[in-house]
What does this fold into?
Amino acid sequence: MGITCLKAKLAPSRKLSPKLKKLKRQLKKAKNNQGNGLPLTNEDQRLAEHIQEMTSEKNRNNVTRTQAYLAFYQKYPEIRWAFLGHIVSRNGGWNMTDLRGDLLSRLLTTKQQAQFFDFLERGNWLIFHDVYPQMLLYEESIKRQTNMFYLLPRFGVSTFMSVIWNEFLKSRDQYMLAIALVINEQNYLEQRVIQNDHYQETVLETMNFKIQELFSLNQILMPYQKQSEIKVIGQSINQFSSVHERIMLGKRLYELLFDGDVYERIFTWACRHPHTGSRRDYWSSIFHDINESVPGEPFVRRTKNCQLRPGAKRIYSPRLTQAWADVDHHEAEVGDWFDDWRVLYYLQKNDVDVDGEVYEDYCQTLEKIELAIIAKETFVSRA
It folds into this structure.
């Protein structure tokens, strides 16, 4: 679904606020003035090259990206998307290592595992490639006490975000900026990954991806500690190919993370548990980054209600660096996704409470996968 297909989804439930009307005018003006920027000075060019180098350094793999988001948020907590991005990127890493863990590796071929990883890694890489220079320009603006966002076009950043960042420097509206970044990143991915013919053929249209959605494997989990117990809240998405649904998921995750009553606990947990890509990071009672299984032994059910069965071995969940080598990516595709000001309606707050109860769904997901593995191995043994 391209951005032009969003119009039906964006039918306004109420009129634009005065602030959003102002943004609408600014966006139209900026769109008309595209390509009219001044040439860069030598100092600007050096700064741009430095930012590019820093972005490439931190964009090596999911672990380095995820850590970079958190480190930036710790310095600039007003940029709330950085922490939301950290949480979502953690989940991306867990999804990547699941492909080589005890469960999905029994359902997917080696080729399918690599195709799924390529899909997840490309999206994770692209988002960081687009958003990290934006954050570094914000840092430079703070340090120099002057607006440096005129450099955004140098990094291929959308006109939409140029307007939003300039407005943020004046209004300091943290919600507006965070949701705008959600809108931007999901639209940035749309043509480059979701609508890309290669990923459509190898991942999104495959039966295995349909099964993945059926099993609710697209859950975003936010772990935190309550007394001695690890809890999770989160959300599930079952229409990953819909840019509208992904944006609405981002809005719900923002509300859970920042408007709920467990933000401090989630933040504390994230700071105390460096991201490795292994699900052991949050549930060491169920997952282990050392494979305790004997190669070739028949699979037996391990869990019930997110608890190990008596005598069961923990589920192997490798660290990212154990599971996958770093990828040498080709250059990001060029082009500005922004062509419809109606995306501004996403900046209006929702009037519904978000239910973050995802624990039972996740437990059922584990059990469904285990049953699917047993069914597959039983079928193969009888064939």
Q: What stands out?
A: The longest strand covers residues 219-226. Confidence is low (pLDDT under 50) at residues 1-5. DSSP finds 13 helices and six strands in the chain. Residues 110-144 form the longest helix (35 residues).
